[in-house]
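hey so i finally got around to running the thing on that chain from the lab meeting. sorry it took forever, my laptop kept dying and i had to restart like 3 times. anyway pasting the input first so we r on the same page abt which one it is
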Amino acid sequence: MQLRESGQEKDSDLLQLVTFHIGDEEFGVEILKVQEIIRMMGITRVPKAPDFVEGVINLRGKVIPIIDLRKRFGMAGQEHDKHTRIIVIEINAVIVGFVVDSVSEVLRIPANTVEPPPPIISGIESEYIRGVGKLADRLLILLDLDNLLSKGEQGMLTSI
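ok and heres what got predicted. didnt touch it at all, straight out
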């Protein structure tokens, strides 16, 4: 993972993001929401959990629910490999791990390069998307972590 900065903007005008891949798409989340990024580890299945919940892990004595973002976004499943990572994030005081295909980099982008999501986005429900960052050679989908899980789903995860 590398740190890149695009341009010479002031820090207040920059978004700091952790970027990762799911399939051919690149996503970003605010770095301040990310607690840590860990390698794939054994996941204990939880009976009767929603299909996008892989199960739970024990991370330094804390039980953390693990969500497969591929399944959450309705994408086809994929075998985990040496690039698969779990991004541990706090959403509304709930600690959750998200399985992603690979983590790319920590990136700083100017806030003015982010546009609202287009009205129709194929494959991913638009309430999960905060905006689309335009970089020189690619587009970056910024996830709205607060909307990624409904209040009911967040409550369900705290009871796992």
